[in-house]
Amino acid sequence: MASILEDRFEEREALIAELEVNGHLNDPRVEEAMLAVPRHLFVPDELADSAYQDKPLPVGNGQTISAPHMVAMMTSALMLEPGDRVLEIGGGRGYHAAVLAEMVGPKGHVTTIEYVPELAEAARERLAEIDSKVEVVTGDGFDGYPRNAPYDAILVTCAIPTVPDALLEQMAKTGHIVAPVGSTQSMLTVLRKVGKMWQKDEMGPCLFVPARGRLGGENPDESSD
Ligand code: SAH
User: Fold this and answer.
1) Which positions of the chain have pLDDT values less than 50?
2) How far is the CA of 120 from the centre of ligand 1 (A)?
3) Whether 209 contacts 62, CB under 8 Å
4) Is 66 one of the annotated active-site residues of the chain?
5) What would the pLDDT profile of 79-133 be if each residue is shown by its tens digit?
6) To bridge 19 with a disulfide, which of 24, 100, 108, 182 should be the other Cys (CB 3.0-4.6 Å)?
7) 186 C-alpha to center of ligand 1: Å?
8) pTM of the prediction?
């Protein structure tokens, strides 16, 4: 186990240093978490040599793994604490979920929802291999995942037209939702909940794969409740 986690460690260190220099990363806990997760295991084998460049990579099924600077910025914005319960929507092959799991530690819990069954399965396999206790759920993130709610933080990693009510409702009393909102050109949006109040902050434009299914605005049938 030690060797699989230490593999390509210097490449990870160099990437973290690059993100720091470029101003994308200045949170030591996020740095530690990103150093701990071997990104090359979460990309297709033939792309392992590119895994420590700061760019998104295709992971199959028309989907991508987000660029490391985006993972760093979004993770910092979530303001995670050890022991937090986190929901991610758009699990892909599980890289960002593994970083979140490092952030919240053994007392925390990470649930990730992935729409494409093949990717969800690949995520389960990889996460188990590095002994990361993320719960991977296959499905559409539109309804969140009430079973593990309330969440201290919710991360969305596909572009959504609006933040669905279910996600707002599944938040704990305080915490952050980070999501790319808007379909063609998305705005990286942070919603901060304090009691019954929400504060909205926009971090800047960003590019994400569009959400599919109901989360993406398909069949918006909200008549059921
Ligand atoms: N967090 C991932 C990045 C995934 S890219 C990582 O660390 O690599 C966005 C992912 O969102 C894709 O895998 C896509 O299949 C998924 N997705 C798209 N629509 C979705 C939906 N409605 N519910 C859940 N996941 C969705």
Assistant:
1) 223-225
2) 9
3) yes
4) yes
5) 999 999 999 999 999 999 999 999 999 999 999 999 999 999 999 999 999 999 9
6) 24
7) 15
8) 0.95
